[in-house]
Amino acid sequence: MASSFRTKLRIAYNVLFAPGFWDAVAGRFLFCPLTPSPAPAERGRGQNHTDLRGAIHNHSTYSDGLSDIPTVMDAAKESGVDFVLMADHNTMQPLRDGWQERYANESPFLLVGTEVTVEGGRFLLALDVPPEYEPVIGVSAQTGINTIRAHRGFPLISLPFDMKHPFEDWSVSGYDGLEVLNFSTIARRHINFLSLPWILIVRQFGGMMAVIRMMASRPDAALSRWDSLTRGGVRQVVGIGSLDAHARMKMFGKMYAIPTYADSFRACQTHVLVSDDIAGAERLPAVNAALRAGRCYFSYDCLGDPTNFCFLATKEGKDAATIMGEHLPISQGESIRFVASAPGESVLLRLYRDGKPVASSVGGTLSVTIPAHPGAYRIEAYRFTGRLGAFFWGVRPWIYSNPIYLS
Q: How far apart are CA 317 and CA 139, in angstroms?
């Protein structure tokens, strides 16, 4: 697809003024006052689950990816993910050809959706759609969303703040989710005249995974949009982390076979929570149901394994816990206890309500009781190298939960 003049201006601005470079530098430092020392998190409902690691939004030779599906699945096994979600452009042919069924009982297993090109060269993800669904290229975003829903699918906004293909028609309705973290978008912001020499040096001496870890940064614009959509705890919008992996990248007019599928899969994953007793082909509908419900979190797995991250809310004096993606009805005068935990000690956990921080804790555990106010509450976890009081350095964004909704 030919780049528009506006797209070329965005690319030129990114290369010449390097906003991604300065964002990455600033993001390594954080001033964050802490709440009192946390109490240990107890095991509750929502922790008796299997944490399935997913590589979401990938392309094969069914569209513009480098390799066929068996090669992609071999890379998935190498990387250690539990499932792969293919999203080749504007086609459900991989599903009709039986690839999803072929891998249904394998590890890793395969889900097939599609990336839909709508008016203006913008993109939607169509997940959990049937074989007979076939997208029409170039329709309005609203028509695309309506068609996905008419086929009982799960529509998401793809590449919402990408440098080349940002989604612009936010007046649309009916979509259920958002690619809050798209690693392709993150990577594009890092390719500029300031960072490129560092990237080449790091790749030479540390390899591609060192470059990928270097690129991990907070998706500020997408998080801000997500918070605005869920503000007040009324509307549920599922957030996912995705890759847009092709195993090839165009830089300065030349195509390079980087990063590999396996390296991409190690970069960013969406972790989906399903019942412990789910196995075999039952995993496919279970993962789709969990994604629709927001029972998931996403993370830069290249910075460390976040498996068994936990985020719960309970009413004071009650035992039943509410987990990510769920709604908790509240009444005036009630208090809510939020508990979150992540592996490791040099971890900063921050609780947000409608995009504003309300509590923070270090040491891998946060436990705080606050008055119940309507809103969408979510957790961000960061790894850090050192701290002095409320000042942190060597900060790396790591885990993003889906919200718990209070209303």
A: 52
